[in-house]
Amino acid sequence: MSATSVPGGAERIRQGSSIGQPLTRRDGPLKVTGRARFAADHLPPGTLHAALCVARIAKGRVTGLDLAAAEAHPGVVAVMTPGNAPKLARHPDQKDGPFVFRLDLLQDSAVRYANQPVAVVIAETLEAATEGARLLAPRYEAESPRIGLDAGTVFTPPAIGVGEPPEEGRGDVEAGLGAAARTVAATYETAAQYHNAMEPHAAVAVWDGDRLTLHTPSQGMAMAQGRLAGLFGIRPEDIHIESPYLGGGFGSKGMVSGPQVLACMAARLVGRPVKLVATRAQMYGPMGHRAPTRQTLRLGADPDGKLTALDHHTLTASSAFDDFFEPSGGVSLTLYASPAIAVRHEAVRLDTGTPLFMRAPGEASGSVALESAVDELAQACGLDPLAFRLANYAEVEPISGRPFSSKALRECYRQGAERFGWAGRPLQPRQMRDADGLLVGWGMGTATFPALMFEGNARAELRADGTGTVELGAHDMGQGAWTALAQIAADGLGIPLERLTFRMGASNLPNAGIAGGSGHTATAGGAIHAAGLDIIGQLADLATNDAASPLYGAGNAGVEARGGRLYRRDDESRSERFEEILARAGRASLSGQGKASADPAAQKAYAMHAHGAVFAEVKVDPDLGQMRVTRLVGAFAAGRIINPRLVTSQYYGGMIWGVSFALHEHAAMDPRTGRFLNDNLAAYHVPVNADTPAMEAILVHEDDAVVNALGVKGVGEIGITGTTGAIANAVWHATGIRVREFPITLDKLL
Ligand code: MOS
């Protein structure tokens, strides 16, 4: 049964005692006491350690390795190079399905980007492997790399297997701009960013014949199984992935990366378990990144401040050997009402690793440019930025004309502005100072993210003693899936959380889809809930057809489950414990299956997006340009809230990432060598506590009867959208300087 095929919208959710509760993370105590075992914590008997030797050039080939020196080092067991790497069943450049990216797996001597693995040293200790990798001292034939958006050949998006970036439009943009009373044309640049999950990509690989056990962090275990099966020529079901905890993913663990596969190859080569943990620097290259963008926006407005045209052109980068586009323009298709919209993407091919999904891929970078340009146009029109946004409020999805499944954005604007104290903000910049003489500025941005859903499966069991088990191959990157999904599971089965055993994070459980696109709660949660409904339906059949039950004759739809009992809907005084129903029926247990996927009819009929409004205050030293975000208020509407504590935490995380995007993150490469200048957390800046403002996240109520069975829209990525633009707009409001190149650093204010 498909959960989304049940009519009745959000009303159909069985909400008992768990959903909606602000529970703390159920895995929290394990994590803070060190008992949660992450991938790299595993060390099966006989495990060898592997270290990557990575390229110090960005383009060319390896002409020599000092194999003898590495092999002679005490403790080194083997050196894996293109000369002896295990044969693969399929070349890793061969694309055999969606979401397949080309990987560098020692198939030849070519170097396609800096930090590309060129050999793997396997040794008895990590120290020996690391020293062995150093001793290899590769020699190269180097070519000049293409680095930076001006360096490569421009091409337009091909099919990328992960959805093409939107090339869409409606109306006549040129006519709209020509007729406008006020126009803005501006170009915004965003820097390349790297995911920098706290936990590096790690893999502990154990072969048993042609069966592989892999401890590795994954946002998509079933996809990883498929990719590995193709590469090794074995069956997906012969690959067992354990991924109960991730120290962050942000998209970088959505697809299996080259180094994770290299660990499996190394284990094959030496016939022993192998553990490989990428160093921080090695995370810059083979694991994806957010591509830089140069976005040109042209906006026009009539004398009342209503948009007449919106043109959003993105130039971004892909690698020289694969196709991934940061689809920045998508936000302009859905956010503001405009009679004419055009969105286009182009990219250049650069000698870098292939970019990848990174938290709010497209929306994050696109929102920066759109929210800045909207702010510039509001100023040109002499309108308050909030009034301007309200004047251009999209009652239906601008590009398609479809109604929104729900949209409480107006309420987000209202509650956010009120809490922030937006009213009375001076229109002109440089009008406010604090007691210390610092310039104060207020800015805002609209947050948006699509409500996505994938396909997920779950199974459940209810036992004679009234306890239950729900399990599926879901993933927790730190977002709280262990808790939120268990809450849904308990209510789905109609039992208290204490009576539930909840399992996830392993590939031998039902495929729960990918934890990405902010769609995991909707997908995995939908499957879980459907599995619970399956069992409750069976239980209801047993009870309502049994003359000995107080529920006899109520009919399957005439009962509901909560707290471990079935109740008659028309007479709450008549109920029966699950244990009694099962005992009389002589059943030791009931098992159920659940499946959830997007409903194509609803997808076609409705636009589905979460929305929010973010308000920022910054303070800038007028002499030094030093700036701080001092306050952030975000008000978000994302459908049903499963756990307000965890959702608030997700919004905080997203908003802090917005601070990071606005003021800190910038992967710098030497254009001559293509090598990273800051592939470490000392020089690649992310906000520390001192950079983190006072924050408030307001959970705006929103009912959505059609988005999915649970009525949830997802909260993982939206917080970063809106925030970066709000901060940039606040910097302008404080200083009168419009910085269009991100991150905003103090040199740009002097
Ligand atoms: Mo996300 S970038 O969908 O992990």
UniProtKB/TrEMBL annotation:
Q: Which InterPro entries match?
A: Ald_Oxase/Xan_DH_a/b, Ald_Oxase/Xan_DH_a/b_sf, Ald_Oxase/xanthine_DH-like, AldOxase/xan_DH_MoCoBD1, AldOxase/xan_DH_MoCoBD2, AldOxase/xan_DH_Mopterin-bd_sf
The parts of the chain that form a coiled coil are none
Sample GO molecular function, one term: iron ion binding
Q: Where is the Aldehyde oxidase/xanthine dehydrogenase a/b hammerhead domain?
A: 33-144
Pfam families found in the cross-reference section: Ald_Xan_dh_C, MoCoBD_1, MoCoBD_2
Q: Where is this region: Disordered?
A: 1-29
This chain's protein is named Xanthine dehydrogenase family protein molybdopterin-binding subunit
Which organism encodes this protein?
Methylobacterium soli
